[in-house]
């Protein structure tokens, strides 16, 4: 099998390093060192760290299992639970270190980079809309009450999930995620 | 009036700069330049940036109006609403730039600094307990249903608030906060 291209090695390394260190603490040199490529090669492939961050955000989004929220072979409420359980396991496996790339970039880069901010707005909107569509299905099959606007609740849950990660990075014991599941599935999606 | 001590000038500047730039993007030189003091003077007053961050966290906590949550001259549900409305206004006034110092530090520093992580655990726990106590009062006066555990709901709401900030730093239009108020006060605290 051919060796990954330099560009691909840089994206792989950046994916790992942005996730681990966040945006500001992760410089081009850290990325190229981690990729095992010369720092000078970076600018042959990317105009800036920001441009690379946009590629990483897109790739990260592809791993969030958002399309599975539309899988009608599974009951909608079970799909919602599986979605957030997957996300929780993905944070837990790193001992609650690292966070969500979207959340990290919102905190660190959205104020300073219009391009990253635009990417985040799209990512959060796509994700919240998929959650809202699944809530709507769950309301239609009677597993979730219809008292709440699915769009508002979808937006709220996506943000509340990001906040559970914030709490969990401090607590590192699963208690913030547990509170999320209790209220989200015990009250809001019931 | 006497000029603020160098230590005080450093804390004031750090409070501002940590809030604006987060932990990693805010170095000692940025803080001392912003304070108008020589960089060398920093280590006369603080052992490290981390030690200063702990002082800033404590001062920030003092501004979050957590004691007002126990003010029994105001109805408990009104107190909860006033609390989150104050926090929302405090973010909105910066055009949704900056965030919560606790949330920023959780994302950026909790993985790497045990001291900051300990401070965050205490700050979030104190805050969530004050919210829980107020929910308990609201349950007792009948303004909030007793179906939810006040401790779990308090914890959830504090985290959901942090997540609303994450969403708002991308959206910057008030929509994430609006979703928080709709679900928190329309469903969870009703």
Automatic annotation (TrEMBL), chains A, B:
Keyword DNA-binding among record annotations: yes
PANTHER family in the cross-refs: HTH-TYPE TRANSCRIPTIONAL REPRESSOR NEMR (PTHR47506:SF6), TRANSCRIPTIONAL REGULATORY PROTEIN (PTHR47506)
HTH tetR-type domain boundaries: 4-64
Swiss-Prot/TrEMBL keywords: DNA-binding, Transcription, Transcription regulation
Protein name as annotated: TetR family transcriptional regulator C-terminal domain-containing protein
Residues in the DNA-binding region annotation: 27-46
Species name: Amycolatopsis mongoliensis
InterPro entries for this protein: Homeodomain-like_sf (IPR009057), HTH_TetR (IPR001647), Tet_transcr_reg_TetR-rel_C_sf (IPR036271), TetR_C (IPR011075)
Record flagged with keyword rRNA-binding: no
Gene Ontology molecular function, alphabetical: DNA binding
SUPFAM superfamilies recorded: Homeodomain-like, Tetracyclin repressor-like, C-terminal domain
Record-linked Pfam families: TetR_C_13 (PF16925), TetR_N (PF00440)
């Amino acid at each position: 099998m051919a060796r990954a291209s330099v560009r691909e090695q840089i994206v792989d390394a950046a994916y790992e390093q942005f996730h681990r260190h966040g945006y500001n603490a992760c410089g081009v040199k850290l990325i190229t060192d981690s990729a095992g490529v010369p720092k000078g090669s970076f600018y042959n492939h990317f105009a800036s760290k920001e441009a690379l961050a946009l590629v990483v955000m897109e790739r990260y989004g592809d791993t969030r299992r958002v399309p599975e929220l539309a899988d009608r072979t599974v009951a909608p409420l079970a799909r919602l639970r599986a979605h957030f359980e997957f996300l929780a396991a993905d944070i837990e496996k790193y001992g609650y270190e690292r966070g969500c790339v979207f959340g990290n970039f919102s905190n660190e880069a959205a104020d300073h980079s219009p391009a990253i901010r635009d990417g985040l707005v799209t990512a959060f909107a796509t994700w919240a809309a998929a959650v809202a569509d699944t809530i709507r299905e769950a309301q239609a099959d009677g597993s979730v009450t219809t008292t709440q606007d699915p769009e508002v609740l979808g937006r709220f849950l996506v943000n509340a999930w990001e906040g559970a990660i914030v709490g969990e990075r401090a607590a590192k014991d699963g208690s913030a995620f547990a509170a999320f599941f209790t209220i989200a599935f015990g009250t809001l999606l019931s």
